[in-house]
Amino acid sequence: MVKTLAKCIREYKVASIITPIFMIFEVILEVLIPYFMASLIDNGIDKGDMNYIIKLGLVLAVTALASLTFAAFAAKYGAIASAGFAKNLRHDMYYKIQCFSFANIDKFSSASLVTRMTTDVTNIQNSYQMILRMAFRAPCMMIFAMVMSFNVNARLSWIFVIFIPVIAFALFLIIRFAHPVFTRVFKKYDKLNNVVQENLHGIRVVKSFVREEHEKEKFNKMSGEIYSDFSKAEKIIAFNMPVMQICIYSCILLISWFSARLIVAGDMTTGELTSMMTYIMQILMSLMFLSIVFVLITLSRASGERIAEILNEESTITDPESPVTEIKDGSIVFDHVNFSYAGDKDKLCLKDADLKINSGETVGIIGGTGSSKSTLVQLIPRLYDVTEGRVLVGGVDVREYEIKALRDSVAMVLQKNVLFSGTIKENLRWGDPDASDEDIVRVCRLACADEFIEKMPDKYDTYIEQGGTNVSGGQRQRLCIARALLKKPKILILDDSTSAVDTKTDSLIRKAFSEMIPDTTKIIIAQRISSVQDADKIIVLNNGEIDAVGSHEKLLKENKIYQEVYYSQQKGSADNE
Question: What distances in angstroms separate CA 333 from CA 68, 114, 496, 547, one per listed residue?
Fold first, then answer.
């Protein structure tokens, strides 16, 4: 984990190195101040030497000012290093997520990814700053102050040594019991974020079904569990302070007792006692800060493990060593394909799919819910890899292509149509960043989107809200189809992406496809027979298997599943009339 996270320091290595150096210089100067103070008391004040007092007073002032300067520089560069480290962590995680396959994304929930990039990174940032400053300052302060205290009075200084194992053992127990609780808390944070995310995305459904109270109960339950775990962790960590205070006050009492006897006996001066008391506080405060650092590291360890999990995750889909970059045509072959989302041959979603689609053909896919229609087409642009068998595009196995080249040649309009915040033009140019205004208008006509765009006040410069909430479902679908067409793909896949448009518009879109992009292979997944009946061939899927392939007329005569769907829709259409 540490090695993985350390790679993200990069350009902030210099700031990370000079921060503890400044801290060490600050500590050296701070430790010298009590020594000078003892000399000032014994050789200046007690002897009434005003010149010595002034001389040493100036030395003390310069030392204190220099110490303050080094502390300021340490704070500055510590902040730069920790903030930069956090920036690189977010950058690397975000870029890593962009390389994930669908299988990788399925492994982590979106709520968990958000938590890791926000809360977890903040925990690491705070801990890193504490490590650069306190984790160096505290041990150095303790060591230097210990050396100086032994120099003043070795017998009294052994009292510190006695209490160090006690504090170390207490910290060990605290960390051991607190870490598992923090690990559990962050997993529950993921669930809480998921609840909030679901509620915000589905707020219209929540309100339409008057389920606000149910959502509040879900939120309160998760929030309560987090509160319970955090309370437990904080109770464990709370033992840190009383242990430290017992050790500090015990040291002060013991040293006060023994030093008083030494002063009475004439074996110790007032100045030495003053410096000893200061060194006591420096040593014990160093131990206290070290304990705080250990507590923060315990908290951030769980966050670090979660971040490292993302950074170490390898995409299940990668380019081959010598990838093919040219896609000859839009022909597609499924060669005895089996597929499982879990990669388990005993849990197949798609079974022995054997199919050939010629370049330029229009192919319809019909099947019930859960029949693996979407699964079948997602294998074409290699959103997932087959479990067994091969998928060929342009006569080449999709695993031999460069991923970018393959996906640039396959345009896919998914079931969940997503638009991003920005103008209509900006959304459409996801298909081709260099597309001209004329190209945008052309594809919008093909997708029958121009008719409603022209009626908008700003036309193609109309602003689309996040998720496309200010356009209807049918309008959103047509914009997504236009965006896909702008790629000029060899293969166009419409995954039930005309379900929200009326039958007349659906027919006009299909007619435009037939006339304007005849060389593009078109695959249309639909629930309505009318959407696919003019296709060159129609595939009927049932429980992950290809039940039949043929024309509308052939299937209507020979295939029971197709007949049932057709006649039920015809009956429904007649009843509506």
Answer: 73, 39, 21, 17
Nearest of 355, 338, 356 to residue 347 by alpha carbon: 338
User: What are the tokens at 271?
Assistant: 């100045």
Place of tokens 């150096």: 21
Inter-axis angle of helices 154-201 and 240-265, to 10 degrees? Answer: 160
Please return the burial class of 398, using the count of CB atoms within 10 Å of its CB with bins 0-12, 13-18 and 19+.
Answer: buried
CA gap 469, 421 in Å, rounded = 10
What pTM does this model have?
A: 0.69
- In angstroms, what CA-CA distances link 276 with 39, 46, 244? 12, 18, 19
H and E: helices and strands count for the chain: 20, 12
Count CA within 13 A, CB hemisphere, residue 57.
8
By the 8 A CB rule, do 117 and 240 touch? Answer: no
Contacts of 248-255 spanning 24+ positions with Cβ under 8 A: 248/284, 248/288, 250/163, 251/159, 251/160, 251/163, 251/280, 251/284, 252/277, 252/280, 254/159, 255/156, 255/159, 255/280
Enter the tokens of residue 512: 């435009």
Q: One digit per residue, pLDDT tens: the chain, 577 residues?
A: 788 888 888 899 999 999 989 988 888 888 888 777 777 777 777 677 778 788 878 888 898 899 899 989 998 998 999 999 999 999 998 888 888 877 777 777 777 788 888 888 888 888 888 888 877 777 787 788 777 777 777 777 777 777 777 777 877 777 777 767 777 776 777 777 777 777 766 776 777 777 778 788 888 888 888 788 777 777 777 776 777 777 777 877 887 777 777 777 777 777 777 777 777 777 777 777 777 777 777 777 878 888 888 888 888 888 888 888 888 888 999 999 999 887 777 788 888 889 999 988 889 998 887 888 888 888 998 888 888 899 999 989 999 999 888 988 888 887 677 788 888 888 888 888 888 888 888 888 888 888 888 888 888 888 888 767 777 777 888 888 888 888 888 898 888 776 666 777 778 887 887 777 888 898 988 888 888 888 889 999 888 888 888 888 888 888 888 888 888 877 655 554 4
CA distances from 482 to 93, 223, 454 (A): 32, 43, 15
Instruction: Name 537's bridge partners.
Output: 363
Which of 480, 347, 337, 351 lies closest to 399, judged by CA? 337
Q: Are 364 and 513 in contact (CB under 8 A)?
A: no
Give the phi and the psi of residue 422 in degrees, each rounded to 5: 145, 180
User: How far is Cα 204 from Cα 549, in angstroms, rounded to an integer?
Assistant: 40
Task: Give yes or no for a contact between 91 and 117, defined as CB atoms under 8 angstroms apart.
Answer: no
